[in-house]
Amino acid sequence: MSEEVTLKRLSDTLWEIPREGDMLVPGRIYGDDEIIGHLRGNKNTLKEWDALLQVKNVACLPGIMTASYAMADIHPGYGFCIGGVGAFSVDEGIVSVAGVGFDCNCGVRVMKTDLSIGDVTPKKEDLANALYRDIPAGLGSTGSIRLSKRDIDKVLIKGAVFAVNQGFGEEEDLEYCEEQGAIKGAKPENVSDKAKQRQFRQVGTLGSGNHYLEVQVVEEIFDTEAANAYGICKDQVLISIHCGSRALGHQIGTDYLPILEKASRKYKIPIRERELVCAPIKSEEGQRYLSAVNGGINCAFANRQVLGHLARKCFARVLSASEDSIRVLYDVGHNTAKIETHTVNGRKTELLVHRKGVTRAFGPGCTDVPERYQKVGQPVFVGGTMGTSSYILKGTARAMEETFGSTIHGAGRALSRHEAKKRWNGKEIIHSLAQKGIIVKGHSISSVAEEAPGAYKDVNRVVGVMHKAGVNLKVARVRPVICVKG
Question: Number of C-alpha atoms within 13 angstroms, CB side, residue 45?
Answer without folding.
Answer: 10
